[in-house]
Amino acid sequence: MKTRILLGFVGVVTALWGAWLVLDVPRPVEVGAWFVAGPIVHDLVLAPVVAVLGWAFRGPAKVGAVISGVLILISVPLVWQESPINPGLHDRDYVGGLAITVGVVWVLVAATAIARKAARARPASGRS
């Protein structure tokens, strides 16, 4: 119980610190939009896709969908920004990088699914 109270306290302090930092943001309306848009995108897009995949597919596809969704949600601010915040740091092709990363995830998902199917199709030889 003490651990829960301590973790709750840390969470509240962290949230208050974040709220304090938001006060210094030049356009706080944009921050508010992210607080509203993030849950809406999650609830209307990501959660239903994962639920349908969970109903229709097994492990590898679920994992791939969750990883892809998280990568997409994390990259949205960088993909949609108007210009680099720090020209030396943020001057990448984020859409291309995201596409490659999600592509690698799904290649690994396909390889895992194929390997599992091959392992199931292999007869159990030498076992008694």
From TrEMBL:
The keyword Transmembrane helix applies. It comes from Actinocrispum wychmicini. The chain crosses the membrane at residues 31-56, 63-80, 95-115. This is Uncharacterized protein. Keywords: Membrane, Transmembrane, Transmembrane helix.
